[in-house]
Amino acid sequence: MVLADLGRKINSALADLNKAPVIDEKVLDGMLKEICGALLASDVNVQLVQRLRTNIKAAVNVQDVGAGINKKRLVQKTVMDELCNLVDPGAEPYKPVKGRANIIMMVGLQGAGKTTTCTKLAYHYQRKGWKTALVCSDTFRAGAFDQLKQNATKAKIPYYGSYTETDPVAIAMEGVDKFRAEKFDIIIVDTSGRHKQESELFEEMKQIAAGIEPDSSIFVMDGTIGQAAEGQARAFKEAADFGSIIITKMDGHAKGGGAISAVAATQSPIIFIGTGEHLHDLDRFEARPFVRKMLGMGDMSDFVEKVQDLQLDQNKNLMKNLEAGQYSLRDMYEQFQQISKMGPLSKLMGSIPGMPADMLAGSEEEGSKRMKRMMCIMDSMNDAELDSDSSLFYSQPTRVIRVARGSGTSVHEVEEILSQYKRFQGMVKTMGGKDGLLKNMPSDP
Ligand code: GDP
């Protein structure tokens, strides 16, 4: 079961609560059965599912809950909290420190997406202003250095490796020493993912770690491996004692459950998930936003970060307006313009809370066409209309007809845009303002 299906199943079990006139033992058991069934079908470890079930039952003792308390909300909140606990071991991941070299060692099996993830992570830090470099210490696989070199060149990230040196420990140490001397902030070391024998692989990892003394080791795991994830994560934890996890290939048919079990097995936090083959396909992972998104509830902080990543400093006005909680039709238009320059559209749109599913439906190309059509309709609006909060259209409905005619579309389509805008505007109001999310965004690593 892919994550979106899991989210839908859990959502529908929760929604069934609203249909029930009273929440009694039977209704609660029915809901738990559906949720647990969905988690098991997603490969979540059976003991974890059992624990979640017991915890929810204990927290929501239907007999004990006083009449004054809204039982449905309590059940929903408890389910949400327990789902978050499932993916959050409560351990703090390593945070790079300014003013010195932070050495990050990446471990994981060949094919997991380790080399790709090294570059994605380096690219992530580089965009956040850290001076970042890559070191390839995989001497086992022919072509490993070439692959890293290619990726690094594309992302304009300095790299180190060798075609002739066969000792991975020597290369790793040389690379780290070189970049440390050049005052790099973050040095990411890629390691081999395969050997003739697993024991050799683990031995090599230990030697490299002893040589470079990493500040943090990250285990890169393929999100599509289902139940096998747990055993693999345990083995790597024992050998490399990694501090955190990146789960890759969560864009395809990943059954999130395997990854979730792995987290619980190693008590290590997931810090990012890979969502595609390209450089920017790396999403920060945090338990609550992740669960909210999985349940189709959208996530504000994700959206805010993506907006910031759009380098809106090119568009300072928009950022200022967003922060003030103000948002005109023109702001929406300009945002569309920015987004269409950015790609991949669906990723960004998907992180916008309230974005209707039909906007996201279909291929990347269809989504992009739909947005261009909206922009084309807005091209027929005049300045006063664009700078308004759309109230002009409601006080003078003939304007809607004029825009529809001008753009060769229908009144219905123009109205769709206006209601879309209303949704965005509502969202911006909650994000902006004195206590809004935009004001409270951490200047994170
Ligand atoms: P390594 O052997 O662990 O270094 O793995 P690679 O970095 O060579 O990746 C193996 C394959 O997985 C490549 O084809 C990558 O493009 C692909 N890959 C890596 N990460 C992701 C991801 O998040 N999503 C998808 N769809 N493919 C990925």
Automatic annotation (TrEMBL):
Coiled-coil-forming residues are none
SRP54-type proteins GTP-binding domain location: 269-282
**Biological process per Gene Ontology, one example term:** SRP-dependent cotranslational protein targeting to membrane, translocation
Q: What is this protein called?
A: Signal recognition particle 54 kDa protein
Q: Which family does it belong to?
A: Belongs to the GTP-binding SRP family. SRP54 subfamily.
Q: Would you say which domain of life the source belongs to?
A: Eukaryota
State the domain notes. The NG domain, also named G domain, is a special guanosine triphosphatase (GTPase) domain, which binds GTP and forms a guanosine 5'-triphosphate (GTP)-dependent complex with a homologous NG domain in the SRP receptor subunit srp101. The two NG domains undergo cooperative rearrangements upon their assembly, which culminate in the reciprocal activation of the GTPase activity of one another. SRP receptor compaction upon binding with cargo-loaded SRP and GTPase rearrangement drive SRP-mediated cotranslational protein translocation into the ER. The M domain binds the 7SL RNA and the signal sequence of presecretory proteins.
Molecular-function annotations in GO: 7S RNA binding; endoplasmic reticulum signal peptide binding; GTP binding; GTPase activity
Q: Which UniProt keywords apply?
A: Cytoplasm, Endoplasmic reticulum, GTP-binding, Hydrolase, Nucleotide-binding, Ribonucleoprotein, RNA-binding, Signal recognition particle
Function summary: Signal-recognition-particle (SRP) assembly has a crucial role in targeting secretory proteins to the rough endoplasmic reticulum (ER) membrane. SRP is required for the cotranslational protein translocation for ER import and preferentially recognizes strongly hydrophobic signal sequences. It is involved in targeting the nascent chain-ribosome (RNC) complex to the ER and is proposed to participate in the arrest of nascent chain elongation during membrane targeting. SRP54 binds to the signal sequence of presecretory protein when they emerge from the ribosomes.
State whether it acts alone or in a complex, and with which partners, per the record: Fungal signal recognition particle consists of a 7S RNA molecule (scR1) and at least six protein subunits: srp72, srp68, srp54, sec65, srp21 and srp14.
Query: Catalytic activity, per the record?
Result: GTP + H2O = GDP + phosphate + H(+)
Cell compartment(s), UniProt: Cytoplasm; Endoplasmic reticulum
One CC-aspect GO term: endoplasmic reticulum
